[in-house]
Structure formats: C-alpha cells, structure tokens
Amino acid sequence: MRFFLSFLLLLLLSLTTYSQGLYLPRDVKKAYKKESRSMNGMPGKNYWQNTGRYDINITATPPERTIKGSETITYFNNSPDTLQNIVIRLFLNIHKPGAPREGGAGPDYLNEGMIIDGFSVNGQSRQWQNSPGQFTVARVRLNKALLPKDSLHLAFDWHYPISIQSNREGMIDSTTYFLAYFYPRVAVYDDYAGWDVMNFVDSKEFYSDFNDYTVTVNVPKNYIVWGTGTLQKPESLLQPAILDRYKRSWTSDEIIRIVTKEDLQAKNITTQNAMNSWQFKATDIPDMAFGLSDHYVWDGGSTIVDDKTKRRASAQAAYNDTASDYHYVAGFARHSLSWLSHKWPGVPYPYEKTTVFHGYAGMEYPMMANDETYEDSNFSRFVAEHEIAHTYMPFYMGINESRYGFMDEGWATTFELLIGREDMGVDKAEESYKGFRVRGWINDAAQSQDIPIITPANNLSGAGLGNNEYGKASLGYLAMMDMLGDDLFRKCLHAYMDRWHGKHPIPWDFFNTFNDVSGKNLDWFWSNWFFSNNYIDYSLKTSAKTAKGYSLTIENIGGMPAPVNVVVTYADGSTEKFHQSPAIWEKGQKLATVNIATKKEVASIKLDGGIFMDADVSNNSNALKAF
To answer: CB–CB of 159/111 below 8 Å?
Structure first.
C-alpha cells in the first residue's frame, strides 16, 4: 500500500510538472481551474461561449457619404456568470478626433464616427450618450442583470459618414464603398479574460463571437453588392442574362465574366427599382463585410473543395476594369481555395464562396478580401492567397487577434510560403519569404526584435509586433513541421482545428493539443520558440574525422531550435546536404554533436539554415582549418 501511494504521488507530481511546463498567465490559470479548458488541449467539460443573432438593415446611396443602419440583436449568455453590464463595440469611432490610435490620421480619415440615434434593451428605450470621448468601447449598465443561460434583446439605430480615406473600410471612389465594422456589436465575453475591453487602435486587429446574421444592404439600381454570406433571391436583383452567368459561375471550372464593362455601360444589370435590397445570410460566423459599386466588373468561377462530398466553393472578383492584374484575381482565388482545401491546412474550405474586392487594405474578412491592385500580378496572387488563407485563422478558428495575432498571421504567412513553393518553385518562394518575412528580424540586433512571441500584441508596436505575428511565428510552425514530419504535423494540426473550430482557442490550447496528439512533451520547443528572447544563431565550433566520416560540434548561440543543413563540399567539387531537425536541441544543451557519415574526401563544411536565416554567418564555417 505504501509503495502504491508513493507511486501515485510520483505520478501526480509528474503530471503536475508536465502541465506546468509552460508559463501560464493568471487569467488562463483560472480557466483551467474552472475546467473550461483542459491541459490536453481539448475544450474543457465546462467550456462555453456566448453568441448573438443579428438582423441588420443598412442603406448606402453614393455619392452621399452617410451610411444609415438599424439592427436588432438577440444576445445569449451561455456563461455561468450573471452579467450586470454589457460591452458594445463601435469600431468606426476610430475615426473620431482624439481616439486612441497607433499611427497618424489626416483630415480625410477623421470624422464624427458612429452616431447612435436610438437604443433599447428588451424593448425599453435608453438614452445613448454620443459624447466626444466615447471611442471604440462602450460599457452599458443593465437595469436588470442578464442571468446565466438567459438572453436579452438590443436594438440600435445609427448613422456614420463613410471615411474618405479608405483603409480596412471606407470609400474606394465616389461610387464604390467598402463597408466593414459598420454595425454596433456586443464585445466578446470569454472564459479567461471576461469582457474584451481593449480599445481598437487601428494597428491591431479583431476578436469576435460566432453569430448568426441577416444583413440587408439597400442601394440604388445598377449598384452591385458583394459580401459575406448567401445572397438571397438573386433572381429578384439581377437581370436575366447577368443572373444566368452568375448561376453558371457557381459550377464552372472556368472563370466567367459575370458583369463586363459593356454591361456596365448599358446600365441594365440590376432590377430597375429606384432602390434594391440585397440580403445576405450567414450562420456561425464572426463578422460580415460588404463592397458595393456601380462601375465594378464581376468575375466568378468555382472549384471542388471537398472531394468526399464533391462540394464546390465559388471564387469571385469585383474590380475596376482598368486594374489589369485583377483580370486574373478570380483565378488566383479559385487556385487558393483548391490548394488550401487539399494541401495545407488540408481542411475543406468551410464557406460557400470568397470574393476579392478591389480596394486599398490588403485585409481579410469572412468570405471577403479587400486587396490593392499591383503592377506585378505575381504579387497580386501572393496577397490574395495570404488573405484567403486567413479563412482558417481567425475565422474558422475564433482567434483573439488583438491579443494573440501570431495565431492567425503566423499561419497565413506559413500557408503563403507553402503555396508559393508550388506557384513559383521552392527557390523563388523561399527567397521571397526570407526577404519579406525573415531578413528584417534576423538582421536587426535591437532588443525590441527579440521580445517573446507570446507577449500580448496589445502591448507591442512597430517591427517587434510585425515580426512576432508574421515571420517569427511562421518560422516556429515550420520548425515544428520539420521536426515532426508532414504526416504527424498534419495530424496534430487537424486535431487542433477539429477541437477548436467555431470556438476561441488560445496559444496553450494549440501547444497542448500538439503535445497530446503527437504523444510527445514538446514544451521545450514551445518554450524556446514562443516564450523566450531567443533568436537563430548557430556556430560550427569543431570538427573531427572519424572512422565513419566526421563529427561536428554545433553551438546554439541564439538559443532558438531551428532546422539547419550541414553542407559538405567534397574534394571533387560536389556537395551534399545533411539535414538536422530541431530535435538535436531537445536535451536543451547549447552544444550538439552531429555525425556525418561519408567516405569521400571533404574540402569544406558549412551550416546553412535556408529560410531559418542565421544572425551571424561568419562563424558558420570556421572549422575549415580542421580539413
């Protein structure tokens, strides 16, 4: 019995040590204690998340800049908490003078923000204070607390001037608008941080609940509306010839010109009512966005995204016909949907369509991208692929981008490299990746570049933020892929996505899922890549000839466990690469011994990290004297 108790104690201690291998913030610890999350990476038995049902009606009449809206929200409190207040997000108040903002704002950007004209809670009218100091977060005290498992009804009427300067949203031109973040919404209330009350400061991105939406966009005749969700009754909106092309595009492997510049000149595209109501519906989705224009052409095609069910998804583009690169964008989008569905992440595209809209943002939205035009169509493809890759993170997976942006930008950056290798070839794709995503970090010795990736993004800015969210995080994912191999890595990634799609994963859910599914304690790797100030810097310290070849000592000066190739040049001028995965650093030592088996005469040896660029390459071949 004493032996059994001792064994049980040792087992419990080992499990505790395992579960405490990574730093846990105090708010996340509370979630584990409440069992809303599990240390094996699964949602806990007490996991919950709140949701809403939004019915929105907006009107836009370009060139008039005022957008008018009304909505009803049914908000469901699935939490175990009694809510004395709710928090409302008013993202467009970022345009107000004095709003907390990272970056400048000129006169074409600044305006009065979102004006609430009417507000009610459960049918009772409430006064809304449109004060100059009310920005992107508004806390509303409830007259009657919202109990667990109960719901409340909110209603808003509002208007706002669309921004002349277009960024993530705004005017593209006088009769082309992109509408995003255009409605009041209930902020996320989650199991680890409570209400999300971070100000939107324009440099960070978003965090949204999964909701059901019905959105009606009212526009004048001959305006087309593209947007998130399923367009209702297109036959009541489009003229027969346009409708026929639209319908055919949904099953066509070829790109169909749904609306051409000749159609636009004829001004007979839509039903000729003074105003048309374009209604879109979507369920279990974190946001809605729309583009509208009276002079954009429209292309569309489709591809099979799920081989088992033969389900197709539509790939569309809406653009000014003068943008030469956009004539290929629907094809780029179609390629992206197919590749992402079948290769990486290898999860069927979860929505019915994607539309790339010609704007200025280079920004993703559910089923939408708002992308610039470029002279180099290869770069246009690159941008479209990156933004469409965001479908999976943060939309399929409800990432808190404002706090953990590396959980979505890092993945989109990873997928952009993987698809780029197929598009451009390995060498060109990797050279582009190094120049665009890695070189700025690894060649800058400033302390700000080595801030741990796990640092909440709301506490970062500038290059440190950008590198953490994009290049550094992507390299971390790719290093893990290198170490586990494609098959096991894919198994772990799919498990993470199966467990957390439609939910709100945090970094520890990802790390713990990989540990659980791989059957390996990978905390040593996560700790080095995501929780440390490490960087990539290897040195070839010593080399010695052995009976079977050569024995090398590699020093990990920067501390980051990255893959590296040992490149051997033989006396006959030929070369050979001996790949080393990050596993050589699993023991945690600063020095690793690598044995190279070869019978040929060696002229030189050097280290080459490829995309895992070395901060100081001067010491990567300093063992030449040994040969």
So the answer is: no
CB 271 within 8 A of CB 217: no
Distance between CA atoms of residues 56 and 69, nearest Å: 7
Q: Which residues contact 478 (CB under 8 A, 6 or more apart)?
A: 414, 417, 611
pLDDT in tens, 215-244: 999 999 999 999 999 999 999 999 999 999
pLDDT of residue 400: 97
| 578 phi/psi in degrees, rounded to 5 | -115, 105
d(CA 469, CA 459): 13
For the chain, the maximum distance between any two Cα atoms, rounded to a whole number of angstroms, is 90
Task: Encode burial over 391-417: b for 16+ CB neighbours within 10 A, e otherwise.
Answer: bbbbbbbbbbbbbbbbbbbbbbbbbbb
Q: State both tokens at 235.
A: 């036959």
Judged against a pLDDT cut of 80, whether residue 392 lies above it is answered with: yes
Q: Residues near 301 by Cβ (< 8 Å), separated by ≥ 6? A: 249, 252, 253, 254, 255, 256, 314, 315, 330, 331, 334
Structure token digits, residue 572:
């006959």
φ/ψ of 48, rounded to 5, equals -150, 165
108, 128, 388, 608 from 161: Cα distances, Å:
11, 19, 29, 54
| Helix, strand, coil shares, percent, the chain, to 5 | 30, 30, 35
- Count CB neighbours of 452 within 10 A: 15
Q: What is the DSSP string of 178-244?
A: EEES-S-EEPPEETTTEE--PPP-SSS------EEEEEEEEEETT-EEEESSEES-GGGTB-HHHHH
Please give the DSSP secondary-structure letter assigned to residue 400. -
Beta-strand pair 211-220/51-59: parallel
**552 contacts 627 by C-beta, under 8 angstroms:** no
- Sign of the CA dihedral running 339, 345, 346, 349: negative
Beta bridge partners of 194: 190
d(CA 504, CA 517) in angstroms, rounded, equals 19
pLDDT-derived band of residue 542, with 50, 70 and 90 as boundaries?
confident
C-beta of residue 167 within 8 angstroms of C-beta of residue 361: yes
Q: For position 543, what pLDDT does the model report?
A: 85
Q: What is the pLDDT of residues 423-459, one digit of tens each?
A: 999 999 999 999 999 999 999 999 999 999 999 999 9
Name the most confidently modeled range: 306-315, 442-451, 617-626.
306-315
Q: Tell me, what's the pLDDT at 435? A: 96
CA geometry: angle 259, 264, 265, nearest 5 deg: 145
How confident is the model at residue 622, as a pLDDT?
64
pLDDT band for 460, please (50, 70, 90 cuts): confident
pLDDT tens sequence across 241-272: 999 999 999 999 999 999 999 999 999 899 99
- Using CA atoms, how far apart are residues 151 and 128, in angstroms rounded to an integer? 21
Nearest to 581 by CA among 499, 457, 492, 488: 488
Give me the phi and psi of 559, to 5 degrees please: 90, -10
Helical axes 406-424 vs 377-389, angle rounded to 10°: 140
User: Hey, which residues does 594 pair with through a beta bridge?
Assistant: 552
pLDDT, average across residues 601-620: 95
pLDDT band, residue 5 (cuts 50/70/90)? very low
